[in-house]
Amino acid sequence: MNHPLVAKFRIKPQSKLPTYYNVFIFADRAAMHLFWREQSAMWGENEKNLTFAAQASSWRTERIEKTGKTRHGNNIGQVIFCLERLGVSIVSHEMTHLALFYVRDHLGKHIQSHKSDELIAQVQGDLTAKFYRQFWKRGIDKIVTAGR
């Protein structure tokens, strides 16, 4: 794999828990799409006409311990971005997908009440804040600004 990767880091939906999403930021859309195609091929899919500006994915990983007990892995998904389209609205949109995935798939909550809405809003806000803390800490904001 040869992808112009600008940054890779992890964000956790809930700081006290070990689960996390990987974040990948690529130099351009072509590199991001190439990465997605290669991943899709590993899963037996054949993605040809990619048009997305960013992509969020969620999954469950499991491992069986020597005792026979099944444990869930801590990596629960990823989100991929490209510098060309790394605006606040796209980041917020993808973080909303991750929040929905997390609340529905990993916490098993049904999204039908005000309480669920509040949990989603909290997780989405936390994920977005954690994304931007890493974004600024790694100087990606300066790379984006320099490219404009």
Radius of gyration equals 16 Å
Order of strands across the biggest sheet? 1-2-6-3
Q: Structural class, from secondary structure content?
A: alpha+beta
Q: Fraction of residues in helices?
A: 40-55%
Structure summary, number of beta strands:
6
The main β sheet shows up as: 4 strands, mixed
Number of domains: 1
Mean pLDDT: 85
Low-confidence stretches: none
Termini separation: 27 Å
Helix and strand succession? EEHEEEEHHH
| Beta strand % | 15-25%
| Shape descriptor | globular
Number of helices: 4
Supply the key terms:
148 residues, alpha+beta, four-stranded mixed sheet, two-stranded antiparallel ribbon, globular
Write a structural description.
It contains four helices and six strands. It has about 150 residues and is α+β, with helices and mostly antiparallel strands. The chain has one domain. Strands 1-2-6-3 form a four-stranded mixed sheet. The chain has a two-stranded antiparallel sheet with strand order 4-5. Helix 2 packs across helix 3.
